[in-house]
Amino acid sequence: MRSIAKLMQDWQFTGPDGKTTLVELPHTWNAKDGQDGGNDYWRGTCTYSTTFAAPAFDAASQEVWLQFEGVNSSAKVLLNGRNICTHDGGYSTFRVHVSDLLAKDNQLTVEVDNSINDRVYPQKADFTFYGGIYRDISLMVVSKNHIALGHFGDTGVKITPALKDGKADIRVETLVEGEGAVSVTLLDAAGNTVATAEGADAQLHLDAPHLWDGVKDPYLYTCVVRLSSDGTVVDEVSTRVGLRTFSVDSRNGFFLNGRPYPLHGVSRHQDRKGVGNAITREMHDEDMALIRELGANTVRLAHYQHDQYFYDLCDQYGMVVWAEIPYISEHLPNGRANTVSQMKELICQNYNHPCIVCWGVSNEITISTRDKADMLDNHRELNDLCHTMDSTRLTTLACYAMCGPFNPVAHITDLVSWNLYLGWYVPGLFLNDLWMDFFHLVYPGRPLGFSEYGAEGMPNLHSSKPRRGDHTEEYQAKYHEYMLRCFDRHKWMWATHVWNMFDFAADARDQGGEPGMNHKGLVTFDRKTRKDSFYLYKAWWSDENFVHICSKRFTDRTEREMEVKVYSNQKSVALYVNGEKAGEQTGEHVFSFRVPLTGEIEVRAVAGDCTDTASFRHLDTPNPSYKLVKTKSKSANWV
């Protein structure tokens, strides 16, 4: 059976300054300079080296493999001075067989390169391309006869459910390296055997399957595939299985298991303040907990392949997922082969996840593309590849705002979504309604979604009169209030994904807010602060009873009368000022009260059994400890 040892400790890292230090994995050399602005974070080749003793194994009957789960963005792997493999693509798993190369004591060296080039994606985008070994490395001992390890980094097991007339047929294809007999067992969530089959192309049947039914009931079976030699089990792979159907209708949106299931959710980047993309499982867990608290039912995992652990979490909690490759912003004629290899790895490594419903082939590719014919041909190749490799899922892409509805790139994939920031980068929130209506009028049979929309909001910037471009928490909330109502008016949209769930690093950014950061997140980069907009979405989407008073951080005001805005998913909210009831309103999601501001006041909002409190005070002049932040807005924004 398999034996797996992590190689995470005692790495000698030679960094951009040529100095060698001791580090632990996961690691990136851009954790600081990739988050401070200036577009000057270091991109080039750094070296990681460690030593390890050869694992105990029988060379006659066993093999040893090295597994790398994420090295950004190109890797050259040397074992005992010998180049054993290279890999281009910073977000996927790759493996190499090393049995015949091992000595008693071994030196493993990985040359990692995130330098600028014209052949490995991504090269141009609004996020930081952290260099480093930022996911796990493992040393695996397996039988010479084993379930495949050398097939695009996948598990060697491909599971394809088909549901019809309330029954399920499940095809389980197993790729074997060596020889042996394959047996398949399907277990229910309680661990009971519900179906068995034999062979490398096995068929399982269930008369009454329990469906994977989104966030309310994300039921998972477990498929155990065993390889036996001479009657002895020599290898085993376990994979969770979710049984579901889905479809998309241009007039009625997304359907899950035959019923309407409107997709409303967020996009996610994987990086964090101070650690870049070298994040832990605990950090993944925290991200998922925040997404679930919000009430989202879909996640766009942008703009690259995410950690397998996070796809597992999406399976476990019922999140419908858009998965994509980093074919982004600029078509590189020399990068076509890399788009194909990254797509093959994405599909092979993630084929079994029930959460995934579509493969994203590109994002905003028309921003900077000279060879349009080659770009379009690249898209057709990827679209055909997806359908050949996976006939069960749909294809999609995200179009740039300046990519018009008639652009041919928007009509290649099965679905299409747009990244539109109408009301943020350009004036006029009402333009969102016009744009959706126009597209739907011209292409009534084409499913349309919003893959990105949002506004910058910083929890230390505030205004009583928020305006577009001011980066205040108040304008971000105002923007999202409009967008949620807009989507309610256009229920035929196949999916909407907020940009973004979390603030993230974009080192090229220097204008507005904090340099090196994109502040469109509903939660801050360090995950410590839920912005008001977070609670707005919670009011719209979550079933968890709550009430939230907005602008709590905007404590000091110069006005004599102020608006107290409250978000809640309850139907009635009462407001108390200094213990006296100031008013009560019945409505949905957003409640607004006008109250006098004299001296210091204590405000309490009550909705059902939920309460929230805040304090505000009147000042004749702005707090002298505040500073005026200059923005393009005409309103004053005090920090």
UniProtKB/TrEMBL annotation:
Domain Glycoside hydrolase family 2 catalytic: 253-541
Domain DUF4982: 561-606
GO molecular function, one term: beta-glucuronidase activity
Ranges for domain Beta-mannosidase-like galactose-binding: 46-121
GO biological process entries: carbohydrate metabolic process
Pfam assignment, any one: Glyco_hydro_2_N2
Domain Glycoside hydrolase family 2 immunoglobulin-like beta-sandwich: 157-244
EC number, UniProt record: 3.2.1.31
The protein's enzyme class: hydrolase
Family, as annotated: Belongs to the glycosyl hydrolase 2 family.
Protein name per the record: Beta-glucuronidase
Organism: Faecalibacterium prausnitzii
